[in-house]
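Need the bound structure for coenzyme A, inputs here:
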Amino acid sequence: MQAPVSEVTVRDFREDDLRRIYEIEVLSFKYPWSMRAFIAVQNMGAKIVVAEHRNYGVIGFAIFRVERTRSAILGHLMNIAVHPEFRRKGIGSLLLRTFEEKCTSRGAEYAYLEVRISNTAAISFYKKHGYKIWGARKGYYSNGEDALIMIKRLR
Ligand SMILES: CC(C)(COP(=O)(O)OP(=O)(O)OC[C@H]1O[C@@H](n2cnc3c(N)ncnc32)[C@H](O)[C@@H]1OP(=O)(O)O)[C@@H](O)C(=O)NCCC(=O)NCCS
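Answer from helper R.:
Posting the output first, comments after.
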């Protein structure tokens, strides 16, 4: 479907976006988050942003939070997905940039994320944006799959 990135804006999540982002989640993942998980993460300090097309409504989202360790402030990308009909049009990149900018403005020096070792599309996507593989977490996912941890210096 045609969806030039110029017709898309990123804005903060509103409660009435929940049904739509859950729909995108289910279309995007074999093991989707539950609808309740989207509420629960916000209660744990996570923020959701959505990509909204002026004709098609919400077509993607990203979920992240800023984490403070003793030695660094980190932006953690917890989830990102674009509706399958709107992929490879720059929407994921727009969401990723928004995540990075919002974390940078809150003092983060690094951005990181976990990705399934089998998710080659997402790994390519993150590599294109400058993320490097930092390590792995064995059996991180509920089906026993390993996660790669990817990290990028923001400033
Ligand atoms: C990963 C995802 C968010 C990317 O969104 P997108 O809108 O398609 O990304 P963009 O159009 O901004 O892609 C930018 C670049 O990333 C890389 N990329 C994106 N999808 C890719 C794919 N399927 N295979 C290889 N490279 C890919 C390419 O380099 C692409 O540039 P190009 O189209 O000029 O070649 C999207 O594929 C998605 O929703 N996947 C399912 C959910 C998911 O796996 N999320 C990640 C969880 S860790």
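Comments: The radius of gyration is 15 Å. Residues 5-109 form a domain with the Aminopeptidase fold (CATH 3.40.630.30).
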